[in-house]
Amino acid sequence: MDIEQAFGIVIKKYRLERSISQENLAFGADLDRTFISLLERGKRKPTINTLFSISQVLNIKPHKLVQEIETLLHQQ
Fold first, then answer.
1. What is the dihedral of CA 27, 21, 37, 40, to 10 degrees?
2. Who's near 30: CB < 8 A, 6+ residues apart?
3. What is the pLDDT, as a whole number, of residue 18?
4. pLDDT level of residue 16 (50, 70, 90 thresholds)
């Protein structure tokens, strides 16, 4: 698993836990819905700005997302 895949898994997990659609996440983070889909599938590299925007909509601290991504990467 690479960083992009782990990022996608983590944001999708939190998005679904909060019952937020890809469209609503994209709107709140000022991103395109297709970009959210590509992120969740590990097809795009998120920027630090993207990380912060998405974490704000998901109501989670950016460092918590990064910690969870690290945990997934180290489970391999």
1. 110
2. 53
3. 97
4. very high
pTM listed for this prediction: 0.91
Q: How far apart are CA 36 and CA 53, in angstroms?
A: 12
Evaluate if residue 58 carries a pLDDT over 80.
yes
Task: Give the per-residue pLDDT at 61.
Answer: 97
Cα 8 from Cα 75, distance rounded (Å) = 16
> Long-range contacts for 25-32 (Cβ within 8 Å, ≥24 apart)?
25/54, 25/57, 25/58, 28/53, 28/56, 28/57, 29/53, 29/54, 29/56, 29/57
d(CA 42, CA 25): 17
Tell the residue number behind the tokens 């795009």, with chain if given: 44
To 5 degrees, how large is the angle CA 76–CA 6–CA 48? 135
